[in-house]
Amino acid sequence: MREEVRKTLDIRGVACPMNYVKVLMALEDLKPGEWLEVTLDAGKALVDIPRSAKEDGHKVTKVTPADDGYRVTIEKGRHETGAQTPNRS
Amino acid sequence: MDTHELDLAALRSVGIIQQKQKGLLVMRLHAVGGDLKAEQLRTIADVALRYGKGEVHLSTRQGVEIHNVRYEDLQQAKHELASAGIQMGACGPRVRIVVACPGSATCRWGLIETKEIARDLDRNYFRQETPHKFKISVTGCPNNCAKATENDAGIMGGALPVWRGETCTQCDLCVHSCPTNAIVREGDSYSLERDACILCGICIALCPTSSWTAARRGYTLFIGGTMGKRPRLGTRLLDLIGNKEELYTLIARVIGYYREHGEARERFGHMIDRLGPDKVKKEILCA
Prior knowledge:
The complex is a heterodimer of chains A (89) and B (287). In chain A, 26% of the residues lie in helices and 30% in strands. Chain A has 89 residues and is α+β, with helices and mostly antiparallel strands. Chain A has a single domain, classed as Translation Initiation Factor IF3, CATH 3.30.110.40. In chain A, helix 1 (18-28) packs across helix 2. The relative contact order of chain A is 0.26. Chain B has helices at 8-13, 38-51, 74-83, 114-125, 173-177, 202-206, 244-261, 268-275, 277-285; strands at residues 16-18, 24-29, 56-58, 64-70, 99-100, 136-139, 153-163, 183-186, 189-192, 212-223, 235-241. The N and C termini of chain B lie far apart (50 Å). In chain B, helix 2 (38-51) runs antiparallel to helix 3. Chain B has two domains: 3-83, Alpha-Beta Plaits (2-Layer Sandwich); 99-160 and 218-285, Sulfite Reductase Hemoprotein, domain 1 (2-Layer Sandwich). In chain B, strands 5-6-7-10-11 form a five-stranded mixed sheet. Classes of the chains: A alpha+beta (89), B alpha+beta (287). Chain A binds chain B through residues 46-47, 50-51, 54-55, 59-65, 70, 72, 88, and chain B through 108, 169, 171-173, 175-177, 202, 205-206, 208-209.
């Protein structure tokens, strides 16, 4: 685990939009600038999760192929995401 | 009113179609891009209750149809619909109602405003005669939800990405999320294989540092798509058409070409295959 990664999350097999809700909940435990490492499915999740994260002010920092999917690190943005339910994804 | 008093061909041209049940008609309504006002839906419901069997059918092309209307009630039903601003649709060898996805007004992936284009095309071409039926669709991006490639003329939004390295953090999201593997990384730089790129704009939308941006945005025009008994996907006529005027000029040429060369009851795509796609493309583009 890289030093910046504070938390890991596996959302393989979790359907949209719950997969992104889990990402938001995990990000709640982080401070701005800290990284969450998410393992997700190839295909739609690899497009939808990074897009939703970007729209909510977070930043993908690395994407690497992993078993049955991808490992994506997301840096928590500066603004509060709160416990809000995403209005899209 | 007796069946013989009705000109069935004339009725078909405005989307009123005889059912297999003697004396009953389908009323196909005009709803561009599948859009109706909520109040119009109330009127449609009222008409369906009063003159149909209280049912409304949603067609595969975003159409709304009232079935089981009796001949003798047709004029009154039409009148009540017209009072709510609802016109009749089309059937037979002519330009049909234009379909459209919600486009960039609503959809996060939409690259173009689809509904405006659908309304413009409807205004210019709806019910105009062609050798066979002519269907037009406008879809916001290469997700192709409105099935542009299954229509005689299909308009699709597109964006050509370009990479600028200054801000890039080499996260590789673009490489892994590109649906056609058109992005290649070499060392710390990324490049686009233009022939593999489908102009979907996913790399532009996703890039966390906005290192991928749109060099150009525009319309892709597909021609000759059809389903039915002899399905054929549309032929790409041109990509990244830069503005609506150019797009509309090309569509006018496309329909003109079909009228000139299409045989009666011959779908546009089958005409293209008879004449040769390369020849047709060249003649339309170089007209």
